[in-house]
Amino acid sequence: MSTGYVSLTLGNLQVSCDKFMGDEFPRQKVEPAKSGLSALGTFVSYGRFYEERHKWTFNGVLKATDIPILDAIYWEHHRLRRTFQPAQILIVDTTQLFQERSPRTRATAPAPFNTVTTISGGTYLSYYAQFWGWFDSEPQYSKFGQYHTLVSLNLLEYADKVSP
């Protein structure tokens, strides 16, 4: 599976996960564009006219000491959202490269994951990125060994981008 980590930061609270269960990457597109054939047999493409958002859905292994921090991030996010305050969670994802057309529109992950690679003569960029996100549901926990807990997380990318 992937190497790297996914970290969540809200204010002075931060937790990272670098052990994931399963073969899929934690980050996926919410609703990728689709294509098909019309009744007349011509090619048709449909979907969003704006950049697709990402979602993080994964089962990860955390130390038991990380659980109170993750809970605090969730409940603080929930409190901020409820009181109409900025509630974005900073998500740093170094499990999967992010690609886009130049110029770069997002902040890179912290060192040593902050390298930007150019593709096709500099037209496209590939790098580990930072995202703003919201919890899509409350974290779910189950026991995983004596000192670790298996957590199931669902996060959805927020509309704004983390500026470069």
Strands, helices and their partners?
Layout: E1 6-10, E2 13-17, E3 20-21, E4 27-29, E5 34-37, E6 43-46, E7 54-63, H1 67-82, E8 89-101, E9 117-119, E10 124-135, E11 140-144, E12 148-161
What does this structure look like?
The protein has one helix spanning 67-82, and strands at 6-10, 13-17, 20-21, 27-29, 34-37, 43-46, 54-63, 89-101, 117-119, 124-135, 140-144, 148-161. By secondary structure, the protein is mainly β. It has one domain. The strands form two sheets. Strands 1, 2, 3, 4, 7, 8, 9, 10, 11 and 12 form a ten-stranded antiparallel beta sheet that branches. A two-stranded antiparallel ribbon has the order 5-6. A hairpin with a 2-residue loop joins strand 1 and strand 2 (13-17).
Beta content comes to: over 45%
- Helical content stands at under 10%
Q: How far apart, in Å, are the first and last alpha carbons?
A: 28 Å
Structural class: mainly beta
Average pLDDT reading = 89
Secondary structure: number of strands: 12
Integer-rounded radius of gyration: 18 Å
- Give unreliable regions as ranges: none
Structurally, the number of domains stands at 1
* CA-based shape: globular
One letter per element, helices H and strands E, the order comes to EEEEEEEHEEEEE
Q: Characterize the main sheet.
A: 10 strands, antiparallel
List the total number of helices.
1
Provide a brief overview of the structure:
Helices cover 10% and strands 49% of the residues.
Task: Give short descriptive properties of this protein.
164 residues, globular, two-stranded antiparallel sheet, 12 strands, single chain, mainly beta
